[in-house]
Amino acid sequence: MLEFITDRRIYEKVIGDKIPTARKFLWLGTSDLKDLHVDKQNRMVPFLEILSDLVEKCVEIRLLHAKEPGPAFRRDFDKYPNLIKGMERILCPRVHFKSVVIDGEFVYTGSANLTGAGMGAKSADKRNFEAGIITDGKKIIDRVTEQFDAIWRGEHCTTCKRKQYCADYKDLLLK
Which DSSP category does 164 fall into? Predict the structure, then answer.
């Protein structure tokens, strides 16, 4: 399966259908990260609640993002204390890709950030115009996974020219 999706379909397919079904791991890559709200059983909740639910099911979560989220995100994050130990996070100012890898069996890659206007449940008149692909094709999954994992491992850190903006650089060198 390889499907090109846009706008609201990204939210429906990735956030609504796939992410809640993760069983082993969920990797999220985004340049921008905001207080995204999503539908959960007919009520709007912070996306962090969905992630918290996954942590309770022992799903390993990695979040790779380019800048610190705003105060609303941090306030919501504090409501889900299991995310502190249950979600790994690396900030890399060079990350601009947007991807979701689920259990090594599903990938979204495209333009939508983890924000309300990008991947959230905003109305058609407030959403960004986004595009991406979803697939269960092994070749694409392997490439998206490897790009994410190379950054996660710090493969680019020693030669990076943006270390001064990277809060996690020293932590990566200690690994």
Answer: G
